[in-house]
Amino acid sequence: MNVSTPTITADYARDGYVFPLDILSPAEAAELRADLEAAEDAVRADKQHLRLLRGYPARLLPSFARLVRHPKMIAAASAVLGPDLILWGSGLFIKEANTPSFVSWHQDLTYWGLDQADEVTLWVALSPATVESGCMRFIPGSHGRNIVPHADSFADNNLLTRGQEIAVEVDESDAIDVVLQPGQASIHHGHLFHASGPNGSADRRIGAAIRYIVPAMKSTAGPETEVSLISGEDRHGNFRLMPPPATRLDPADFAAVAADAERRDAVLYAGAKAARR
């Protein structure tokens, strides 16, 4: 689907999601994946750096900084949120080949500490996201509900930070499989019920979750929370605005995102009995 189509706004309002959106060519997606995997290899001996790389790729890799600023990404997010966009975060959801890792049914905004729901996630596939590889599943229209109760599991194979899972019944017969090819993306609301199963394929399932918000939002982590202005203007000053990385895997950038991760984790794990590291 062309991201400039006017149906994005209407479909998103009705369903809480739109897919597939053609963002990158297959060759561009392959190039981005290769850069990511080379970076993983470069920092693999340092578990904290590997965690930060996968949690903040747009702050550490110029290639991902370009992805979050791609005109088609901005067009899709702007179709929902308007022209003023802040990058709240970028993170990678990686399921290794033939592994039991999964994502339980949840709503993104449950523990983020944001005061509004003016947020969208563009999930960009860097490898095939199929039913076999554990693609996302959406419950159409569930974004119309406020945040429902969640329970923490901290399950070993759950990719979510707290292993959080919706504590009300989810009718999985209503679920839609979000099948994407490399370079394609989906966009979804922060209240949408979604999940994904394990990867039974022979390839890694790699997705980049790019989170955009409007500048009027505030974080309970305070104004020191680091974000990036992607499009338009910030007339509110509720966050510390950071530029894209000037170089690849810069030690100073690792130090900055480590400090920001501590601030965000304090909010994310508030009230939890444990914290996954």
State the total count of DSSP E strands: 13
CATH homologous superfamily placement? q2cbj1_9rhob like domain
Strand content: 15-25%
Regions with little confidence, pLDDT below 50 for 5+ residues: none
> Which geometry do the CA atoms define?
globular
* Rg, alpha carbons: 17 Å
Structural class: alpha+beta
Q: Which bin fits the share of residues in helices?
A: 25-40%
User: Ends: how far apart?
Assistant: 38 Å
Mean pLDDT, to the nearest integer, reads: 93
Number of helices: 7
Q: Any idea of the CATH class?
A: Mainly Beta
**Whole-number count of domains:** 1
The CATH topology, please?
A: Jelly Rolls
CATH architecture: Sandwich
Pattern of helices and strands:
HEHHHHHEEEEEEEEEEEEH
What would you note in describing this structure?
The protein has one domain (7-268): Jelly Rolls. The chain has 277 residues and is an alpha+beta fold. It is built from 7 helices and 13 strands. The model has no long low-confidence stretch (mean pLDDT 93). It is globular.
